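Changelog-linked ticket: flavin-adenine dinucleotide example.
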Amino acid sequence: MKKALVFLETHENKVKKSSLEGLSVLFGKGFEVVSCAFGQGSDQLDELNQWGVKKHYFNTDEQSQKYNPEQYKMAIQSVIEKENPELIIASSNNLGRDIFPRLAAKNDFAYMSDVTEMELGENVEVKRPLYAGKCTAQVTFTDDSAKIILLRPNQIRLAEANDSSQTENIKLDWPTPSANSETVSIEQGESEKLDLTEAEVIVSGGRGLKEAENFKLLHDLAEPMNATVGASRAVVDLGWVPHSLQVGQTGKTVAPNLYFAVGISGAIQHIAGMSGSKTIVAINKDEKAPIFQRATYGIVGDLFDVVPKLTDKIKSIK
Amino acid sequence: MRIFVCIKQVPDTETRIKLKSDSQGIETNGVKWVINPYDEFAIEEAIRFKEQNSDVRVTAVTLGPKARVNNALLTAMAMGADDSILINTDANLDSLTTAKALAEVIKKEGDYSLVYAGKLAIDGNVSAVPLMLAEILDIPHASVVGSTEYSNDAVTAEREVEGGTKEKFKLKLPAMITANKGLNKPRFASLPGIMKAKKKPIVEFSLDDCGINEGQTKVKFTNFELPSERAACKMIEGESDAQVEELVKLLQEEAKVL
Ligand SMILES: Cc1cc2nc3c(=O)[nH]c(=O)nc-3n(C[C@H](O)[C@H](O)[C@H](O)COP(=O)(O)OP(=O)(O)OC[C@H]3O[C@@H](n4cnc5c(N)ncnc54)[C@H](O)[C@@H]3O)c2cc1C
Ligand SMILES: Nc1ncnc2c1ncn2[C@@H]1O[C@H](COP(=O)(O)O)[C@@H](O)[C@H]1O
């Protein structure tokens, strides 16, 4: 039987949704599924048997709780050596992209990040965006090396996990750290909100907001929808918000169900990063703003008038 | 002390992507090529390091077709890099094969302390070459770096990940750093810089010299597609109260996203 390894990220003893998406791609496709997760709670993932996971490697030692790219790489490498998977799946985020390119080089595997569509039939069928979403392409594998696939969060539909097999939990020996790479500190962010790349609803603001303080209007609108706030580059460059909020070709590529562009003109670099959104609402006082060519719904109006009213209306229905 | 900066030339962000008639790639006629924006932070970081330390030589390295990418090297040298290495090829290589070729030329050059790269190239958005290169060179890395601090034999690098979490790593040199926006403010090439760059050496290699051939590529992009045309935007007319009512109704009943 073909074997696949899924690297799981966890939160409070649960597998994160983005990692369940990896398990979903494999579910019912005739793979022997092995998983691994490290850090606190990585030994407590009760739901894995429903996903048909045969073996789960974990480690909860103190060192595994403090992320270090080299140690995580070595830990996953030891799972790869034990299991010889022909397919490895992880999430396309700052963690996945910090570990798996090295593993691909170490093992001479094929590698692709940011995958948005994946079908396992006779072949591995994979699609992803290029040029930050200005086009998409199929990914063709030209030899039979094992493959490492990083899935972009929020793109793969979750399968209904109804397997009832046994999962064997195996404690992995933590690798001896080298002196080359040392974790100095990890400062947990305060943000309770999902990252832009994972959010289902995004409220983005641009220069039309006039000044930094007015982003409060967007936070208020985001609140009842549990949305994440984003921004155009113009306001990042003005220093109103940090770069981590920038959507676009030189910021984050996002694909939420619902994207609000408030006071954003819709420059090509901004559109590139958000055109994959399912529904786009544009609020802009200029009816000729290019954002309206990309939006699903458009309101021509003054955002300082429209946004507070919209916030009240949405609060009233939530 | 020797430092390498890996730079890639990419289509300018203004580019409207058109597909070739067989849909197996993008039409490059008429594309304006620029240095990948994240690589500008990498170049700047290397030059600042040179300015703050004595006896540092900064070498820009790129893999691509000479006629096109020569300009990127000239720009890097105009900004302040001392010289360049070009792997001249028009082959379409995947990330790993590119990293293998880059590793070969870096190894040929002998000892070095730092390799800088961009966190991602905005054409393919793969974000893989630098870490693959670090693995082959067997050096530690920090990726998506927003700030650095150097000591004698180490670099401490901080990066911000999802949710605003800040991670700080201390790496023993030699090390790989991939630059995020905010690491510094890249300078523009000055006129004297541009004049000087023309006299700086570019050493050229072929893929053959690196022991690489296009056949080693494991991954290819095929069957390109442009995003499907969106239906025309539904403009919601009326006074703002009515607009808001109508919008929320559409989001609930038509788009079913609220
Ligand atoms: C190399 C490069 C990379 C880039 N990368 C990115 C990127 O990743 N992401 C990105 O976003 N941009 C990027 N840009 C910048 C991009 O070209 C635009 O400059 C930027 O997106 C404009 O931001 P904006 O829409 O907020 O500002 P503007 O273009 O100034 O638009 C402001 C809008 O607000 C509207 N407005 C004003 N007042 C009101 C009001 N009271 N009510 C309603 N509407 C109002 C105006 O009509 C206008 O349409 C990049 C540019 C370059 C050169
Ligand atoms: N052909 C290349 N030549 C030199 N450096 C490259 C090349 N491709 C990628 N890089 C470097 O690797 C970084 C990330 O690119 P990528 O992995 O393609 O997203 C770029 O910002 C460059 O620093």
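Closing comment: Example verified and attached. The longest strand of chain A covers residues 31-38. Chain A touches chain B through 94 residues (CB under 8 Å).
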